[in-house]
Design goal:
The structure is a homodimer of 289-residue chains.
Chain A lengths: L2 E6 L3 E7 L5 E8 L3 H12 L7 E5 L28 H9 L3 E5 H12 L8 E6 L3 E7 L2 E2 L32 H5 L1 H8 L10 H22 L3 E5 L8 H13 L11 H4 E3 L6 H14 L1
Parallel strand pairs in A: 1-4, 4-5, 6-9, 9-10
Antiparallel strand pairs in A: 1-2, 2-3, 6-7, 7-8
Helix pairs in contact in A: 3-9, 6-7
C-alpha cells in the first residue's frame, strides 16, 4: 500500500510516497510559487502513482476544523495567491483520494509521535524554530486545535536583561517568535545564525527565550516531552543552555516524572528533518482508517 | 437521586448534597484542620444521607492520574498533616460509595462547563485569582491533566513598566501568581485589595498581568471562553481593563470566532461562587456513569 505525503511550505512543497510503516519510498521538492502554478505540478507528481490517500501538512494559518465550511483551506496568509486556498479540496478532487489535513507543525509532531522520539506518548509539545516559531501540541494522543489553530509562537516574552533588540514580529515585537526566530538573530547581530556559531552571547540569549517557551509548555500543558526542531535548532549548543535556563526558571517547583530528567524531557527532533513529511504519511494513513 | 459534593480547600471544606441537575440541596462548611480532625467530620456529615456517590475537588498538588498508585491523594503540600493524604480512598471506604476526583480549579471549570457560562463548550479555560492563581483547562470536553497537574499560575510575566514589585511567589518571584494573587496586591500596596477599590493604578497593573495570562491561554489553547473567578475578580472594574490589554497585546493577530467579541470571551464566573461545589456534583454524577 502506498500513501501520498505533501508538506506544503511557504518556500517549497515536499511531495513523497510512503508505506504503512512511515517509510519514505521517494521524495521530490517543488518550489512554492502561486497556487495556479504549483498545485498542478503537485498533482502531476502524484498522478498515476496509485496512492491510497494523501496527507497534507500546510503552512498557515489553516482551517483545521472538520465542521467548518473552509476546512482544509490555507486562510488569511499574506503570501500572494494563497489566501483562501482550498488545498485539501483541490487535491482530493484532482487525485480522487481522501486527504488528511493539519498545520505544518502539527504534522511534524505527528511524525515524532508516530515514528520518532515521542512514540507511544499521549501528551507532547513540538516547537519549530526557524523562519518563524510555532508549536504543535498533542493531548491524549490527538493534535490539539481549539477554536483557531493555536499560535504558541506569539506568547509574550520576558526580555533578557542584556538584550536591547525590539523584536522581529510585526504584530507583537518581542513575542517568542519576535525574539527567537531565525531572522531575529540575523537582525539583532547583523549576520545569520550560521555565521555566529561560536558567539556564546547569541545562544545564551536565544536559549533564554526558548527556555521561557519550554516553561510555559510545562506549566500549561504538562507534557511528557518537549521536542525542538527547525533550522535554528541545528545549533546543538542550544540544548544544554535551554535545559539550564528551564531548571533555573522552574526552580524545582514542578515535580513530575517528566521534568526530573531534563536531558530526556527537552530534546532535538529525532527524524533527520523528515518528521514533517513522515507526519504527512501518518495523516494519509489516518484519512482512510 | 442525591449526590455528595466535597470542595476540599486549604481553609475550609465545603460539603453539599446535590441532585442530578446540579442543584445544591443543602450545604455546610467545616474548617480545614488536620486530616485526623477534619476527615471524620466530613464523613459524619455525609453518613446516613444515602448519597449515590461523592465528587471531590481538592486543593493541591493532587494526583489525578487514574493509573497512578497515589491517584486521589493530596501529595506534596506544605500544609501540616495533609501531605500524601489519600482523601479519595478515605472517603470511599468510610462512605461505601465511589468518588470522582479532580483538582480544585478543575472542579470550578467543570461546574461552569456543565451548569454555567461554558455549558456546551468543548474547549475552555478557567482562572482562579485569589490567595493563589491557577487555571483549569478543558479540551474536547475533558479537564486536561497531562503528566502532572498543570500549574498555569506559574508562567513567567513581562513586568509592567511602572511596577517595581518583586513578586510574592517563593519559587519564581514575578510569575503570574507572584504578581497577581491577592496577597501580592496587599504586599505591593500596603493594604488588601478590598481597601483599594478606587485606586485605578492598582487595577491597571493587576489587569496587565491577568491579560498576559489570557493572551497565553488564547495562543496556546485557543479556547471558546476564558472565565475568571476567585476573590480578586470581585473587583468588577478588572474585566474591561483586562479586555483592553488583551486587545492591545494580541494586536489583531489572532482571528478566531471566539476572540472577535472580547465581552463574551473574557467573562466572570457565572455561578455565584458555587461553581466549585457544583463541579463536585458533576464529578459525583460522572463517578457512577
Amino acid at each position: 500500500m502506498v500513501y501520498g505525503a505533501l508538506e506544503a511550505g511557504g518556500t517549497k512543497m515536499v511531495c513523497a510516497l510512503g508505506d504503512e510503516n512511515g517509510k519514505i519510498l521517494e521524495q521530490v521538492s517543488i518550489p512554492t510559487e502561486t497556487p495556479g502554478v504549483t498545485l498542478p505540478k503537485i498533482v502531476d507528481y502524484f498522478k498515476g502513482k496509485e496512492i491510497k490517500s494523501l496527507g497534507i501538512a500546510a503552512f498557515g494559518p489553516v482551517d483545521v476544523d472538520p465542521e467548518s465550511p473552509t476546512y482544509g483551506y490555507i486562510t488569511s496568509t499574506p503570501k500572494p495567491g494563497w489566501a483562501d486556498c482550498n488545498i485539501k479540496g483541490y487535491m482530493e478532487e484532482a487525485l480522487g483520494v481522501p486527504a488528511g489535513f493539519d498545520h505544518d507543525v502539527g504534522g511534524s509532531l505527528l511524525g515524532e509521535a508516530t515514528y520518532g522520539c515521542a512514540k507511544g506518548m499521549k501528551t507532547a509539545v513540538y516547537f519549530t524554530v526557524g523562519t518563524g516559531v510555532g508549536a504543535g501540541i498533542m493531548i491524549d494522543g490527538h493534535i490539539h486545535h481549539g477554536v483557531a489553530c493555536p499560535e504558541f509562537g506569539h506568547i509574550l516574552m520576558r526580555i533578557h536583561p542584556e538584550d536591547n533588540y525590539k523584536g522581529f514580529c510585526v504584530y507583537h515585537g518581542s513575542c517568542l517568535e519576535g525574539m527567537a526566530c531565525g531572522p531575529s538573530i540575523e537582525e539583532r547581530w547583523g549576520k545569520p545564525g550560521k555565521e555566529l556559531k561560536d558567539n556564546d552571547k547569541v545562544w545564551e540569549i536565544e536559549a533564554y527565550y526558548l527556555a521561557q517557551a519550554c516553561v510555559t509548555a510545562t506549566v500549561v500543558i504538562s507534557p511528557e516531552i518537549i521536542i525542538l526542531g527547525g533550522g535554528v535548532m541545528h545549533q546543538e549548543s542550544l540544548f544544554p543552555l535551554i535545559r539550564k535556563n528551564v531548571k533555573e526558571m522552574l526552580n524545582d517547583y514542578v515535580r513530575s516524572s517528566a521534568t526530573k530528567d531534563l536531558d530526556k524531557y527537552i530534546v532535538p527532533a529525532s527524524l533527520n528533518d523528515d518528521q514533517g513529511i513522515m507526519g504527512c504519511i501518518k495523516l494519509a494513513i489516518d484519512a482512510v482508517n
